[in-house]
Design goal:
Elements: H1 2-14, H2 19-38, E1 44-48, E2 55-64, E3 73-75, H3 76-82, E4 91-96, H4 103-130, E5 136-145, E6 148-152, E7 157-160, E8 176-185, E9 192-196, H5 200-210, H6 212-215, E10 219-227, E11 231-238, H7 245-250, H8 255-263, E12 268-273, H9 278-285, E13 293-297, E14 302-307, H10 312-316, H11 321-330, E15 333-338, H12 339-345, H13 354-358, E16 396-398
Parallel strand pairs: 2-3, 7-9, 11-12, 14-15
Antiparallel strand pairs: 1-2, 2-4, 5-6, 5-8, 6-7, 8-9, 10-11, 13-14, 15-16
Helix pairs in contact: 2-4, 5-8, 9-11
């Protein structure tokens, strides 16, 4: 019995399966073996010592004067051979030696125990990994399965589908990567774990692990807009007036944000200050472009933005990316015009007309400061972007994607 106890202890430790559950599986297997051996199991009694794992199997037989069914009845003489206190009508426990079971019966009992172990192992794995759903974990690349990638998370392999991979990203076997756990499903062959490298929450979780202020709740990530593999815009807000939210996320000499950029294989990250005033938020979101004015309609969720002529291509970005991400981040439809375009359309007034204009104005307005400098962004950071040349003079009209705000 000491060998059984040792085996169950090892299983409990390695497979995270309770010893009690394993003993119940053994009891069930013994009862089934008796049924296969004797044709019935209603009168089978299994006694297991949970401390020593010693077990005994009994057939409970009725003491009778004349035996007709030896499976359920025992003579008074045979009952007295076991215990002299038995009388007619009593139930006599007749012990069965499990080693007397036939080979097929024994194999069936073994399979029953193994099946229970597999079921409990899968359940334990599911219970472990379902707690990691919507979290970031580190995995080791195992192999490509078609266009998907199998990533080992320790006790099982997760699936990184082609749609959840960053475009152009190639992995090597044994490479360690961070992935976002999208979903954990219970399957017949064990839990199925789906992971992602493109989900916006991956960026949020990376900031939580890298930036102490975010992890502690001092700096709050309000929203994220991401085009995986290219650029991400993230709006942050400080709950402590003494803590600079953007500076905390950037880190000394950019150490914190650079660590996240490296993990995302060079994906650019713009960090901007969140503001309850939609006009200010939109101005911040269009960084690094400078803004002359923002007129925001909170009810219509739309905004008209005027930028200097030389900043129009920067505000729109390569293939409209900067304006598109700003729209997703703020949730506003953003119409961007250059200063000359706005004057021609009558969307911008001269300074001597502001006072009269303000009397009827119920939107939000931000005035351009020609001495404005962004501490964390400069045009050199965008030097590798190919902005529109022919289309730079055209206005951008982009609408935020509601799905990216979730």
């Amino acid at each position: 019995m000491s060998e059984l106890l040792e085996a169950l202890t090892v299983l409990e430790k390695e497979k995270n399966i309770s010893k009690e559950v394993l003993l119940e599986a053994i009891e069930t297997a013994l009862i089934m073996a008796c049924k296969n051996q004797y044709g019935k199991s209603e009168n089978v009694k299994v006694v297991i010592d949970h401390e020593t794992c010693e077990f005994h199997v009994f057939l409970q037989k009725t003491v009778v004067s004349s035996v007709e069914d030896p499976t359920e009845e025992i003579s008074l003489e045979d009952a007295h051979a076991i215990d002299a206190s038995y009388n007619l009508g009593d139930l006599c426990n007749v012990e069965i030696q499990s080693k007397e079971f036939g080979r097929i019966v024994t194999q069936t009992a073994k399979n029953t125990i193994l099946q229970k172990i597999r079921e409990e192992e899968r359940k334990a794995q599911y219970d472990e990994y379902v707690t990691k759903q919507h979290e970031v974990v580190t995995g080791i690349v195992q192999r490509y399965a078609g266009k998907n990638v199998k990533v080992n998370l320790g006790k099982l392999d997760a699936t990184l589908t082609e749609n959840e991979m960053i475009k152009g990203e190639v992995f090597q076997p044994t490479e360690r990567i961070k992935v976002y756990v999208l979903e954990v499903k219970a399957g017949s062959k064990g839990p199925q774990v789906l992971v992602s490298r493109t989900h916006p929450e991956l960026v949020k979780r990376l900031f939580e692990s890298e930036v102490t202020e975010v992890r502690d709740g001092i700096v709050e990530i309000k929203n994220i807009a991401r085009e995986a593999g290219s650029r991400t815009k993230i709006a942050v807000y400080s709950n402590d007036e003494d803590v600079d939210s953007v500076g905390a996320c950037v880190g000394l000499n950019g150490a914190r944000v650079n660590a996240i950029v490296n993990e995302l294989k060079g994906e650019k990250i713009d960090i901007i200050n969140w503001d309850e005033n939609p006009a200010i938020l939109i101005e911040n979101a269009l960084s690094p472009a400078k803004v002359i004015s923002v007129i925001a309609d909170a009810e219509e969720k739309s905004a008209k933005v005027v930028v200097p002529d030389y900043q129009l291509s920067l505000a729109i970005g390569k293939e409209g990316q900067n304006a598109r991400l700003a729209a997703r981040l703020t949730g506003f439809k953003i119409d961007i015009k250059s200063e000359s375009q706005a004057r021609e359309a009558g969307d911008i007034l001269d300074y001597d007309e502001y006072e009269e204009y303000d009397e009827d104005f119920d939107g939000e307005y931000e005035e351009y400061d020609e001495n404005y400098e962004d501490e964390y962004y400069d045009e050199e950071a965008y030097a590798d972007d190919e902005y529109f040349e022919e289309d730079a003079e055209e206005s951008g009209d982009l609408e935020g994607d509601e799905n990216d705000k979730e």
